[in-house]
Every structure is written in structure tokens, then in C-alpha cells.
């Protein structure tokens, strides 16, 4: 019976790759915790057998110590790790989530909100929505989006003693700098109230809801949390695509090495 050894070196290589494609440090810490906990369950052989992952999933369900979303999160991480190892056949399915009456904002609806803001000449809420959705910043972090940070093309964002690097894509950078120029904002944070104070979450929600009439979007969808959800979805999609291309490149590299060993190509290809 075939087994797959789960080595710490493999876990470290997987986490290193995740870090290189932009995964946040706190997310990598979570990935490591899940994978090491899973590996400990394989003691003493530290080998994955065909039914191990399914058994592990069923045991976590029966123990009722973890929520369905927590179990699915762990399974998703392990499945990504197996994909990295080229063992997709060993993956298992997540637990079907119970349907909730949660209506998330769709990307096409987000675009319509931006279009409505443009048509209504509501530049501030236009750029607030865009900044949250593209940079993944919360309302609390908006004051850290300063003229200097945008001019530099990015910088450090800190929240609750945690810091992360954010990069401002060139199109957004150009738009924000033009906006600052039109509004006479030469330094400091870009988004503020009429009294020159930090803009409040309720104000943002109110302005988004006003746009819903023109954008044909349900008002309950208009909130910063849904904008952050769109950001997270996009990041996950990008990471999956990058991982896919990296795996393809790695496989071609291995094929080239085999040809080199057999003397059927030269070293210049590598």
C-alpha cells in the first residue's frame, strides 16, 4: 500500500512558497499550525495513507470540538499542501456548508457601485471603495493610506501591534495621486470627514447605500466588510493561479533535468 511521508522540510518548502507569492505572515503561521497538528496525528510513522485524511475529517466532525468552517479551513490548507507535493489524488472534499441567508457583494455589483459613484461625481466614496477592495484595508486602517504611502507605491500598515506590507498597484496609485491633486491634499491621510477627522464606518455605509439605487444593488450588500470579502476572494484566486503556474514550471524543469541526465539536451536549457 502506497504511503506519503509528511516531512517538516516539505512543510517548510510549502510555507516558503506561500510567503514568496504574498501570503500574510499571520496566515503562514496559521498554515504551519494546521499542518504540524495534522502531522502529529500521523505519529509515529508520519506517513499519509489513502484513508487517513478522510478518517481525520470524520473524527473532527464526531468530536464536535471545531466548527464546520474551522474544519473546512484545515482541510483546504492540507489539500493545498498535497497539491504542492503533486498528490492531488490524495485530497479530500470539504464538508458542505449549511446555506445561510448571507448575501455577499458580487464583483459585477461592485463595478456598478463604482460606475454610479463616478456618474454622481462622488469621488471620495469611489476611491474609498476602490482602496478597500484593491488594498484589502479595513476602515480602521484607512487613515494609514497617506499621500506619502501612495507616492511610494506602498508601505507598512499596522493594526493591533501587527504590521504588514501593502503594495499600491500603478493604476490605483495614478488615480489616487490625481484625486489628491484635484482636492489639494498635499500630505497626510487621504480620506477624512468635512471636519478633517477620520471618516467613520457609518458614513461610508450610508454613502454606499445611496449609490445602491443607481447601481441596482441590494442596500444590505453595501458595506466595507463585503468589499474586504471581494479582496480576499481575488487574492485566493490569484494564489491558486500562481501556484498552478509554478507547479507547471517545476514539472518542466524536472523533465529538462531528466533529459540532461540522458544526454538528450544541453545545460543551456536550464
Please sum up the structure shown:
The protein is mostly helical and 270 residues long. It folds into two domains: 1-100, Tyrosine recombinase, N-terminal domain (DNA polymerase, domain 1), CATH 1.10.150.130; 107-229, Intergrase catalytic core (hpI Integrase, Chain A, Orthogonal Bundle).
Give, in spatial order, the strands making up the sheet with the most strands. 1-2
Contiguous helical run count:
10
Instruction: Please state the average pLDDT score.
Output: 89
Catalogue the unreliable spans.
none
In the CATH scheme, the class of the largest domain would be Mainly Alpha
What composes the largest sheet? 2 strands, antiparallel
CATH superfamily of the largest domain: Intergrase catalytic core
Shape: globular
Give the strand content.
5-15%
Count of DSSP E strands? 4
Annotated CATH topology of the largest domain: hpI Integrase, Chain A
What is the CATH architecture term of the largest domain? Orthogonal Bundle
Alpha-beta classification: mainly alpha
Order of helices and strands: EHHEHHHHHEEHHH
Whole-number radius of gyration? 23 Å
Topology:
Layout: E1 4-5, H1 8-20, H2 25-40, E2 47-48, H3 52-63, H4 68-84, H5 107-119, H6 123-135, H7 147-152, E3 154-159, E4 162-167, H8 170-183, H9 201-215, H10 224-261
Antiparallel strand pairs: 1-2, 3-4
Helix pairs in contact: 1-2, 2-4, 5-6, 5-9, 6-10
